[in-house]
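Request: Could I get any protein with tokenized structure?
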Amino acid sequence: MITQIPNLPSNMVGFHSSGEVTKDDFDIVKQKVAELVEKTGKLNYLLFLDNSPKDFTAGAWLQDALLGINNITKWNRAAIVSDSETVIKFTDTFSKVMPGEYRGFHKPEYQKAIDWVSEKTA
């Protein structure tokens, strides 16, 4: 399941992922991303993973890919917060192949991730 993280800076969106994630879970993500892009012209995005990428169904992965493609020119900063070194390293590498900046953060660095995504820090 994916839920929106409340009380974040107004120039970003953030989501918390736990348990099984299905394509239907991306409805809130798509809606809030569209609203932010309409308002700011760019996408600053945070995903806090309290689960594993294995918990995402095939439909969820497809929706995630479509989210990226549909907003490919709007991505500015994206962070994934996780306990998984593999996820963090993959996220850090993503900046080399996609527009925008991508960083992985460990869970204790949650506030640091928010500050970076919201452009409070470089």
Remarks:
- The mean pLDDT is 91.
- Strands lie at 2-4, 13-17, 43-49, 75-82, 101-106.
- The helical segments are 26-40, 58-70, 85-94, 110-117.
